[in-house]
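2.7 Reproducibility. Because tokenized structures are sensitive to small changes in the input, we list the exact sequence used for UDP-glucose 4-epimerase, including any N-terminal residues retained from the expression construct. No trimming or masking was applied before prediction.
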Amino acid sequence: MKKTNVLLTGASGTVGFEALQQLLQKDYFNVTAFDKKTKLSTEKLAPFKNQITLIYGDITNPKDLENIKDVDAVIHLAAIIPPLADEMPELAHNVNTKGTQNLIQQLEAHSPNAFFMYSSSISVYGDRIENPYIHIGDPLIPSEGDAYAETKIKAEQAVQNSQLNWTIFRLAAIMGNHKMSKLMFHQPLNTALEIATPRDTARAFVNAIENETAVAKQIFNLGGGETCRISYEHFLERSFAIFGLGKLDFPEHAFADKNFHCGYYADGDVLEKNLNFRQDTLEDFFAMEAEKVSSIKKMAACIFKKPVKWYLLKQSEPLEAWQNNDKKLKQHFFNLQ
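Resulting structure tokens (single pass, no recycling of outputs):
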């Protein structure tokens, strides 16, 4: 049986690392992993060096892609994500959009029959507070200042205009290995939140390789479904309890009112019917998170919860804008009368 040559970009990332492990569980895949060489990527990928072909390089440099040839399927996950994407929009554009274009050009020249699977984002739909149920055909209206979403839309266009066979998955909120940052305050507490675990998300991409016909030349919303839905406020409440941080008791105006993204995928079951990738629920996610927190860590967090929350609150840009009466930023973050 001829093995399928699979290229995986962003192999050391949260979803990428799950995809790598799942690909290696099947003996009919030859895996090539392409990633930026960093301390983290070399440490994570080193154990697999004898099982895969490992290419380190910069996707923004076409020369670094020259050894990518004879590929049958591509799982393209490499990207600059928020908050870095918002802080360095030019870098995000170079990696997410131009990098995708570079990869497509290399494949068109040396692997024209490759099946290209692209990882897009729910952020392309923009703020859905008022209309949280999302369909594929909905207009793509990124929130104001969302550089990441803009790069994803342009990359989607490059994929669709390519000569390759392709599919695009717009990922819901992928929860796993997330670090608390200033972004937590950008998201309104009343956001409708549908998550997917990294391993379910990776499973969709891996399963798609053997179901190319069912998903080719189509765009899908990828989420965990009804069992993975919750409000953002309740999500944070449960997360804080797991980590020993007590109540979600931040002051008024700590969280934005608008200009973020997320929602419920009204048509997300379509992809599930094609690929049968969902295994985890919201309860599974919280159980996995709880396993990561030792009793010692939880006790320490409980003891120091006040300074931890103080540190987090110092990163709230909405609160800073409100306290400083920054009219431009207040208009960006809040529904002002």
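DSSP finds 15 helices and twelve strands in the chain.
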